[in-house]
Amino acid sequence: MEKKNILTYEGLQKLENELHDLKVVKRKEVAEKIKEAREQGDLSENAEYDAAKDDQRDIEARIEEIEKILKNAEVVVEDEVDLDKINIGCKVRIYDCEFEEELEYKIVGSTEANSLQGKISNESPVGKALIGAKVGETVKVETQAGVLEYKVLEIQRSN
User: Fold this and answer.
1) Residue 129 reports pLDDT greater than 80
2) In angstroms, rounded to a whole number, what is the distance separating the alpha carbons of residues 78 and 15?
3) The pTM is what?
């Protein structure tokens, strides 16, 4: 049995839009590049043809990857998330006890995780430790750098 890909509605929309763009726009663009390169004659030393074929391979691989993710997708309905404890689809405000700073994260499935956007996976060490925690609780996270402690300050809907 394949692993479920847990997605928020926003993550689902993003993947569906990317898939549509790849199938409708990018496929046509690369097909046109291949056609133009073929018209130049000898394909054995045609860098444009090779590059276009590489692009085509990359696009098809990404389409396959997205379709696989969507086939096994489980969408979290963020409006129905229980705000008594941390779960996928909620936004949390936590206090880093060591660095004495507040952090804010959105807990998402691993497919959507992006630390630069403040989205951490439920499978990451911090995400895993936070899941199920309640406001006021302190969680310990074992990392390569040692044990980190975070106090849960607030749990809210992410939308």
Assistant:
1) yes
2) 17
3) 0.80
